[in-house]
Design a protein that fits this description.
Shape of chain A: globular
CATH superfamily of the largest domain in chain A: NAD(P)-binding Rossmann-like Domain
Strand content of chain A: 15-25%
Helix content of chain A: 25-40%
Oligomer: homodimer
CATH topology of the largest domain in chain A: Rossmann fold
Strand order of the largest sheet of chain A: 8-7-6-9-10-11-12
Radius of gyration of chain A: 21 Å
CATH architecture of the largest domain in chain A: 3-Layer(aba) Sandwich
Chain lengths: ~300, ~300
């Protein structure tokens, strides 16, 4: 099959250059404005980018190469061809997100925000800090993102526990559990959601989930719709969550009227725990393209039924 | 020799309890107020604590067990007996200070203060972050503190270089240099001072030192008098230092009129990168006491000539 790619949005110019240099046989067009998307879409069979499509007809699209790890917005397209191939870019997102989690866990245990605030008030006051090495961390999701985060935290904390659907062991987690066996896990200090957005994970972190914990740091680097804003504020109020570090939200940018902005126990990060680079995109494109040509699959291929 | 200990200040009550429980043969008195120090001092031959002495006569004191790692203020006592034994507490200070350094380096590369400020302004704006793994870190001092910091950073950054007087290799530094060979070290991104305060290190980090670097993160967890405030502000202004993370100052608490409080490129931490615990103090006391009884020495013993 001959591919004709439409690309748009962040990294699209770099990606076009990459294709022209390394895959001169592949046709690629770049849309810089919305109306160009409309006019160019009917001429192509492949999409490459962070999702720039809305409700256009995409039934002729054979391959979508997502520049990010999350593909939920592509999967929601109504006219998606059932045989479409969707591949994604993970790159070193797991490593980046691991550094993000490590950063904010350290920020909490070392009390750097109160110290920063005190400086502005010219206040010299020691604030007892604690250590990473006593913490038990639960990571929801043991895929490439969850594994990357675990890798980063592994040597720093006491224990890293992974949660996946089957509860089967995965390296480098010290321990794993499933949703069914989760309640047996004791003494969790940090919960990190690396869950993708699928119909099965929407609002999955509900009040009964947070009831299993007390005084935890909750970090969301997965998808924002895994937890409802009001549930979060409620469990913070109940003391089940002492600090929520949120990099993802059901609606992004986070609406100005969200109560999360003003909560002292919430840190709003503008979806930047893992920012894909052109290197990530081109490497994953190469791996995906090679697999497609050979009629194979690899871990970059999205299972349309599972949704990730 | 029979020891009679005077203790005062932070951790003194816990230390008194420890001595009473584990060394019932040793006499210990605790001063809770300044005038009690005056009246109790003539009756003892041993001091235990963070330095609570000023200009009293200490010529009869045979042993000083410092609760911290820095002993410079003890060494400045004018009537110090030349045969006095001074021992100190390092405990896991190196590990704590390593976590402190890791925390603030991550805070810088992940831009968490601008993100925190943006939240207060309800501003959603991605700020490009970078990674730890490309950084080269120079640690001034390869003693227990410097080694602890190196241990923490070793697997996280590209390279950890240690500086000591002889330039001889020390584990776990990837590389070492001396003051004489320092100028040959290239591409340093972070400089951490773990220097003790001695006559030889006062103001040692002068303008010519900072001229060797460009756009570095400078962290001081050693002693404040290694660098003059005005030098620091000047090299920040010149762009040689892009951010200074200071946990120690020539005068503590940092005076209200110091210009460091208001510089956006300075983070003022109230001397808390390593806070000694009673466990640290009692462990180091036990090791020091055992060595003294056996007529030996160990790494907790301060060399009065070197000053650390």
């Amino acid at each position: 099959m001959d591919y004709k790619i439409l690309t748009s949005g962040r990294l699209s110019s770099d990606f076009k250059l990459f294709i022209k240099n390394y895959y001169p046989d592949i046709e690629i067009v770049e849309a810089k404005k919305d109306d160009e998307i409309e006019s160019l879409l009917p001429e192509v069979n492949t999409i490459a980018g962070f999702n720039f499509l809305k409700d256009q007809d995409v039934s002729k699209i054979k391959w979508i190469h997502a520049f990010g790890a999350g593909v939920d917005s592509y999967l929601k397209l109504k006219t998606l061809n059932p045989d479409v191939i969707i591949t994604r870019t993970t790159g070193d997102l797991g490593k980046q997100m691991g550094e993000f989690c490590l950063t904010y866990i350290l920020a909490e245990v070392k009390k750097i925000f109160p110290i920063y605030d005190n400086q502005r008030k010219t206040t010299w006051q020691q604030i007892p800090a604690s250590s990473l090495s006593d913490l038990n961390v639960l990571i929801l999701g043991t895929g490439s993102i969850g594994m990357g985060v675990a890798q980063q935290l592994n040597d720093q904390v006491n224990k890293v526990i992974g949660l996946n659907r089957s509860g089967s062991p995965v390296d480098p987690f010290h321990e794993t559990c499933s949703w069914e066996t989760l309640s047996k896990i004791q003494d969790v200090h940090v919960v990190i959601s690396a869950l993708p957005s699928t119909p099965g994970t929407a609002a999955i972190l509900d009040e009964s989930f947070f009831q299993l914990f007390n005084d935890i740091i909750f970090i969301n680097v997965g998808r924002g719709d895994a937890v409802d804003e009001n549930v979060l504020l409620k469990v913070i109020n109940l003391g089940q969550v002492k600090k929520a570090i949120l990099d993802v939200f059901p609606e992004e940018p986070l609406p100005k009227d969200s109560k999360l902005w003003n909560s002292e126990k919430v840190l709003v990060s503008p979806h930047q725990s893992g920012l894909t680079t052109i290197d990530d995109v081109s490497k994953s494109f190469e791996l995906a393209f090679k697999a497609i040509k050979n009629g194979g699959r690899n871990s970059l291929f999205v299972d349309l039924e599972k949704g990730y």
